[in-house]
Amino acid sequence: MLVIVTENVPPRLRGRLGVWLVEIRAGVYIGNPSAKLRDFIWDQIQQGLEEGNAAMAWNTNTESGYDFKTLGENRREPVDFDGLRLVSFLPSDQNETAL
User: Fold this and answer.
1) In angstroms, rounded to a whole number, what is the distance separating the alpha carbons of residues 85 and 17?
2) What is the SS3 assignment for the chain?
3) Per-residue pLDDT tens digits for 22-81
4) Which among 88, 30, 27, 26 is positioned nearest to 53, based on CA atoms?
5) Which end of the chain is flanked by fewer CB atoms within 10 Å, N or C?
6) Whole-number Å distance between alpha carbons of 70 and 89
7) Of the options 3.40.640.10, 3.40.50.2300, 3.30.70.240, 3.30.565.10, the CATH number for the domain spanning 2-89
8) Residue 55: strand pairing partners
């Protein structure tokens, strides 16, 4: 199983992703492609991302049972913690006004 979540990507990239995967919500794609096709899809995302961001997760033989990649600007950053992939939150922009 493969899941891709995109934000603020160009419509042409969304259309390309729709060729290989099913868009179940706006910017959320799922499918069950081969590892080779998964890598090809990620290359397509890298080439067409522009100002947006994307995350891709798939099942694999790791302790957690999945792996993931991210691309583009986002407060969430993947970190390796003793072989376990986790997500760290970067501090919010200091220019933002607290409510």
Assistant:
1) 25
2) CEEEEEECCCHHHHHHHHHHCEEEECCEEEECCCHHHHHHHHHHHHHHCCCCEEEEEEECCCCCCEEEEEECCCCEEEEEECCEEEEEECCCCCCCCCC
3) 999 999 999 999 999 999 999 999 999 999 999 999 999 988 888 999 998 877 777 888
4) 27
5) C
6) 13
7) 3.30.70.240
8) 5, 70
Per-residue tokens: 5 = 């979540």
Where do we find the tokens 């290989």?
A: 20
Cα–Cα distance measured from residue 5 to residue 56, given in angstroms and rounded to the nearest whole number: 7
